[in-house]
Amino acid sequence: MQVTLELILSVLMCCFVRFSSQCSNYGYPFENHLATITPYRIVSNKSFERINFEGCTPKKIWLMARHGTRNPKYSLIEQMGSRLPQIKKLLLDGGSLPNEFIRNRDLDLLNKWKFNMDPDKHNKLTHEGEEEMLVLAERMQSRFPQLFDEVYSNTSYKFKYTHSQRTQKSAYYFTAGLFGKATAKDVWFPDPLKKDPILRFYKLCDRWNFEVKKNPAAQQEVRIFESGPEMEATIRDVNKRLNLKENILELDDVKLIYEMCSFETAWNKKSKSPWCAVLSQDNIKVLEYAKDLRYYWQDGYGHEITYKQACPAFRDMINFLQSKNRFPRVIAYFTHSGTILKLLAHLGLYKDSEHLTGKNYDSMGDRQWRTSLIDAFGSNVAFVVYGCGSEDKILTLHQENIVRLPPCPDTDLCDLSLVRDYYFQSLDKCDFTSMCRVH
Ligand SMILES: *[C@@H]1O[C@H](CO)[C@@H](O)[C@H](O)[C@H]1NC(C)=O
Ligand SMILES: *[C@@H]1O[C@H](CO)[C@@H](O)[C@H](O)[C@H]1NC(C)=O
């Protein structure tokens, strides 16, 4: 009770006495602004209800999922372990905290904060990630009991993951959610490929690697934004809030704080990361935009080759759903952010009328391309084919929510023939080798 009261009071103080943008994050929604480090629980649809359509029966499902919440990559663990303790010391030794933004409670948390992750644990699936996959499977099974048999059979199910611990473990916990942990140990998986043509097609696309992924010019909008007025104000703001003189914390520090805030929020449902308290909601939105920009120009609508090359995955989906074979009934692939985003863009989902640029932060406040929502850990896209009399129709789910594809803006179920017509290029003109050739 006391905690609640304190929270309400501080929120009221903060909102009405000061500008709300100056407030620290306690009591403010910031969890859905953590870009690609957002935990799945923030965006998932937690309903267990069956999805039924009158006169239709589900026949098959194709699912592409990003692995669950993981550890940071090697270099980021090193940075977090070396720079953040320095920043912590700077704040605690400064003697000017607490102040009206950083309160005693935040300082206590910061005091207790430590980070001693072994860099060898980089990119590993975490406990939260295991749970994300487990409950995703449970909910999908209860929505589509006709498809997700509780008894495992190697013919009804096809699972596949990429060559990585996080996707392998994600696949395992997904099957544990379907069949229980004991049976999950016996599930058969094909050997993972380093460059899987369906699960991670972009590893095989030289042109994309050359023109986009490894081309600094492809990311110029990020650089424009990161040296622009919004980011400058954010850096100034953070230093000011911490009573630090002359912008001691620089862009990389503020970005690092945002990463730690994001990861700790993803890892721990119950406790707050002290690093989130350092950032106001406005700061977080600016940092989120910088990441949205990066993924927009790397894995999204920024360059045509990026989303065009997803046709093999799209074709795999259509071929499976329209095939007359009754088995397998379920295909589930465990992969990465890069695949999910390129697939979403290939489908034409979450497309804004203008490009995201380094200069249009203000007008993009309501943008559709928000990685926090569309590319959280565990993000997934699923297609279910229903037999409706003599017709086949497709239901599309993203994060377990029904979404409508461009060919069917007015109905949840889309005629398979309309999908085929609308995306005919992806089916008939999918010459991956030639589109990915470096000119
Ligand atoms: C979750 O999905 C169901 C369909 O299964 C839908 O009716 C419901 O509106 C969704 N919930 C949210 C919060 O979007
Ligand atoms: C499962 O099926 C695949 C073909 O889809 C086959 O290659 C594999 O050997 C089977 N595994 C077992 C354990 O039966």
From TrEMBL:
Keywords for this protein: Cell membrane, Disulfide bond, Glycoprotein, Hydrolase, Membrane, Signal
Catalytic activity: (2R)-2,3-bisphosphoglycerate + H2O = (2R)-2-phosphoglycerate + phosphate; 1D-myo-inositol hexakisphosphate + H2O = 1D-myo-inositol 1,2,4,5,6-pentakisphosphate + phosphate; 1D-myo-inositol 1,2,4,5,6-pentakisphosphate + H2O = 1D-myo-inositol 1,2,5,6-tetrakisphosphate + phosphate; 1D-myo-inositol 1,2,5,6-tetrakisphosphate + H2O = 1D-myo-inositol 1,2,6-trisphosphate + phosphate
CDD domains, per the entry: HP_HAP_like
Highest classification ranks of the organism: Eukaryota, Metazoa, Ecdysozoa, Arthropoda, Hexapoda
Family: Belongs to the histidine acid phosphatase family. MINPP1 subfamily.
Compartments, record wording: Cell membrane
MF-aspect GO terms: acid phosphatase activity; bisphosphoglycerate 3-phosphatase activity; inositol phosphate phosphatase activity
Main location: membrane
GO CC term, one of those recorded: plasma membrane
Pfam families cross-referenced by the UniProt entry: His_Phos_2 (PF00328)
InterPro entries per the UniProt record, alphabetical: His_Pase_clade-2, His_PPase_superfam, Histidine_acid_Pase_euk
The protein's Enzyme Commission number: 3.1.3.62, 3.1.3.80
EC primary class: hydrolase
Source species: Psylliodes chrysocephalus
S-S bridge residues: C56-C388, C261-C276
Coiled-coil ranges per UniProt: none
Protein name (Swiss-Prot/TrEMBL): Multiple inositol polyphosphate phosphatase 1
Signal peptide: 1-21
